[in-house]
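About this split. The held-out portion is used to measure sequence recovery: a designer receives only the structure tokens and must propose an amino acid at every position. Recovery is the fraction of positions where the proposal matches the reference. Here is one held-out target exactly as it appears in the evaluation file.
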């Protein structure tokens, strides 16, 4: 690992400290995470990072879908980006970028997909107790 010494304006350092506190990380860990996320976004501009109930995740810019959800839809179309794009009513280039991210970070994205697949109907009903269910 390489050490990096950077100077931050006071307000930026305070914002970084707030992020680190929310994430329960040290300032250095938070800096490394944010830098990694920025580098990934630079490489895959259709992907951004957000907090979610499941933790920090990769989402599709301008949508409510996490990358693993697009992957799930893509898998239902045999990973055909054009058909997936038609389903989502998105440009194919957007889907290609998101699926490329899913391939580049397969371990991370597949873990989120597996976590979703592991939720049982009973767990879902408990989590959404106020929902109206039809059997």
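Reference sequence for scoring:
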């Amino acid at each position: 690992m390489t050490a990096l010494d950077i100077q931050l304006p006071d307000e930026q350092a305070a914002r970084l400290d707030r992020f680190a506190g929310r994430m329960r990380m040290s300032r250095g860990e938070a800096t490394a995470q944010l830098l990694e996320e920025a580098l990934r976004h630079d490489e895959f501009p259709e992907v951004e990072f957000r907090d979610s109930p499941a933790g920090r995740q990769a989402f599709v810019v301008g949508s409510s879908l996490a990358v693993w959800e697009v992957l799930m839809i893509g898998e239902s179309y045999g990973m055909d980006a054009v058909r997936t794009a038609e389903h989502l009513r998105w440009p194919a280039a957007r889907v290609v970028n998101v699926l490329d991210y899913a391939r580049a970070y397969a371990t991370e994205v597949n873990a989120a997909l597996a976590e979703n697949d592991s939720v049982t109907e009973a767990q879902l009903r408990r989590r959404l107790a106020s929902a109206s269910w039809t059997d």
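Annotator remark: The longest strand covers residues 47-52.
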